[in-house]
Design a protein that fits this description.
mainly alpha; rod-shaped; 90 residues
Length: 90
């Protein structure tokens, strides 16, 4: 792959990651709303097993969506900017 193509691919990937992160945040918020609605009426053993699995997974998703995701996007912006300067000057 030529460096110009690499630059285009990096920009495309960065945009896709930004859209994914936005979608993930929205989906997590919607899912939390669904959990909040069902929580008062779903209080059985299956719910406790579900929470034991869902809780840690949710925390990982939330940590990514609320913090780590921006770090990855920022990293890509920096690398894309550096490659663009290398290829086109500035």
């Amino acid at each position: 792959i030529e460096m110009d193509e690499q630059l285009v691919m990096m920009k495309h990937f960065t945009g896709a990651l930004v859209r994914f992160n936005q979608s993930l945040k929205q989906s997590l918020a919607e899912l939390q709303g669904q959990h909040d609605r069902v929580s008062p009426i779903w209080q059985d053993e299956m719910r406790r097993r579900y929470d034991a699995v869902w809780g840690p997974f949710q925390q990982h998703l939330k940590r990514y969506a609320e913090g780590e995701s921006q770090g990855y996007v920022e990293f890509l912006y920096i690398k894309t900017y550096a490659l663009e300067r290398y290829l086109h000057g500035g």
